[in-house]
Amino acid sequence: MSFDLYVFDGNVPDDEEAISELMEDDSRWGTALTPRLAELVAALERRYPGLDDDPDNSPWASWPLTQAMVDGRCCGFNITWSHAERMSSVMRALCSQHGLTLYDPQESLVLRPNGSPPRPAKRRWWQRG
Fold this sequence. Notes:
Strand content: 15-25%
Distance between the termini: 25 Å
Shape: globular
Largest sheet: 6 strands, antiparallel
Radius of gyration: 14 Å
Structural class: alpha+beta
Strand order of the largest sheet: 2-3-1-4-5-6
Number of strands: 6
Number of helices: 3
Order of helices and strands: EHHEEHEEE
Helix content: 25-40%
Number of domains: 1
């Protein structure tokens, strides 16, 4: 099991169910990433070792990094739990720098690039309590 983060280029709903539906539609997978997402992936690949290069120090739980979803407007990143806190901080900063939206399903958090405070995604009815 990995710590997963998803990065979106463009509009992202606040509702966690709508986000899940977008990402689960595998008919929209495999399209080339948008230029901003491709640039982010390239920056991460330059900065952090891949599983093939240095598996003991790599933050990644899966490789290659390019996991294109939502017609290339979303990329998923699987991170090892031992690197989760550091990489979450790195990903937040890089998304802000590149004008991208970060979705953290562990915290039900949507972090938009426009500097607005993070908004929790609306929880599904069975998660409310």
